[in-house]
């Protein structure tokens, strides 16, 4: 796979822990990202975002001169770049607050290196592609709303299509139920309902992907890698 599209992107990491900033920066550089900017405060993050125009921002919720939620609101006054929250705050209310403000993803510390890289790459690809084709196993999805399996059309409802797209774009990363509800249903439904589970069951049956779409205990769902 040609990752030049991804690795030419500029990332901005915002966290008040210097050692963690260096660790994440090194992880992303080792993955091939050439430009990884860092900031430790709200003020520094805003200045860096204005001067360096990053393509994606990863920010913590807890900062010394404010919080990530208010920082995101300030960032949205001058930039629409994708934002991922990376934080130790794993309460459902915090996840919903971040996603409700328009964040593209929410990763809880501690995290696996592979998960962080997969989420960053997925958000960048989603932001940079329109009408692109996605492929996983025997399925090819055209984001212009068509799905083929082994060359044959697969009939999916709009919600099933959107759910499958999220799984394919974030392949190998566990997606929280709240994240899927926010992205597929726009937060308009009660995430305690069985609706998501039923849609997952239908996708598994229609694609015969009973083993490919994994249930992640106390998290949500994940489409496995090859």
Key attributes of the depicted protein:
226 residues; single chain; five-stranded parallel beta sheet; alpha/beta
Kindly describe this structure.
With 226 residues, the chain is an alpha/beta fold. It is built from nine helices and 14 strands. The strands form four sheets. Strands 2-1-3-6-7 form a five-stranded parallel beta sheet, with helices on both faces. A four-stranded antiparallel beta sheet has the order 8-9-10-11, with helices on one face. Strands 12-14-13 form a three-stranded antiparallel beta sheet. Helix 3 packs parallel to helix 4, helix 7 crosses helix 8 and helix 7 packs across helix 9. It is globular. The two termini are 14 Å apart.
How do you describe this structure in short?
The protein has 226 residues and is α/β, with parallel strands linked by helices.
Query: How much strand content do the residues show?
Result: 15-25%
Shape: globular
Spatial arrangement of strands, main beta sheet: 2-1-3-6-7
User: Number of helical segments?
Assistant: 9
Order of helices and strands: HEHEHEEEHEHEHEEEEHEHHEE
Radius of gyration: 18 Å
Average pLDDT, all residues = 83
Largest sheet: 5 strands, parallel
* Helical content band: 40-55%
Q: Span between N and C termini? A: 14 Å
Low-confidence stretches: none
Number of distinct beta strands: 14
Content-based structural category: alpha/beta
